From TrEMBL:
Domain Methylated-DNA-[protein]-cysteine S-methyltransferase DNA binding: start-end pairs: 118-201
GO molecular function ontology, one term from the record: DNA binding
SUPFAM superfamilies: Methylated DNA-protein cysteine methyltransferase domain, Methylated DNA-protein cysteine methyltransferase, C-terminal domain
Entry keywords, A to Z: DNA damage, DNA repair, DNA-binding, Metal-binding, Methyltransferase, Nucleus, Phosphoprotein, Transferase, Zinc
Upper taxonomic lineage: Eukaryota, Metazoa, Spiralia, Lophotrochozoa, Annelida
Domain of life from the UniProt record: Eukaryota
Organism of derivation: Paralvinella palmiformis
GO CC list: nucleoplasm
Catalysed reaction equations from the record: a 4-O-methyl-thymidine in DNA + L-cysteinyl-[protein] = a thymidine in DNA + S-methyl-L-cysteinyl-[protein]; a 6-O-methyl-2'-deoxyguanosine in DNA + L-cysteinyl-[protein] = S-methyl-L-cysteinyl-[protein] + a 2'-deoxyguanosine in DNA
NCBIfam families cross-referenced by the UniProt entry: ogt
The protein's required cofactors: Zn(2+)
Name of protein: Methylated-DNA--protein-cysteine methyltransferase
A GO BP annotation: methylation
Amino acid sequence: MPKVRSGLLDCMHGPENTFTLSSPIGNLELICCAKGVHALNLSSYHDGNSFKPITETEVKIIDKRYDDNGYTYKPALDSVQWLNTYFHKLPNLPCVRQPVICHLMQLTKCSRSSHVSFTTRVWHTLLKKVPVGQTLSYGRLALLSGSTAKASRAVGQAMRTNPVMIIIPCHRVILANGMMGNYASGKKNDVKAWLLRHESVQYAFDKH
């Protein structure tokens, strides 16, 4: 299985490429190899003063680091399709192929052994068990990931190091009291609030 070190992927599947995508929440940086996605993040810093989403923006590739002789990795194309559906046709999302996450694609229930980190289990659980429109607490996610509610701090660390925003939906993890909690260590809380509103989540974020 590909290894994740400090949120960065040490991939055994060959070279990766970096793509810049347009999106309603700003340009996104997508990194992937031929097998799966390595990272997806906002490509520039945003705070409450600069975050100005443009809801009608189409998701498309606007730049890439290497031309690859005209060939575009399938995980990149799948990500563009999935993100376009997420932002513009959300009810149809369950019908769209979910982009493969490179460092999670071999993780199954049978492989949950001592060599699989708790962080990796948390990411996999969040990807597979927390759909659009649902939220859960850090403690609940710890329980679903095979630990106890006391591991909520470790879940918080897993959220901070999540390399694939939106697809691995760390924005759906909120505080046990219903408050929103931080996103990107509090630097992008406005992005989290926007994503949850986009998913029609009703909870106490307006009081945060």
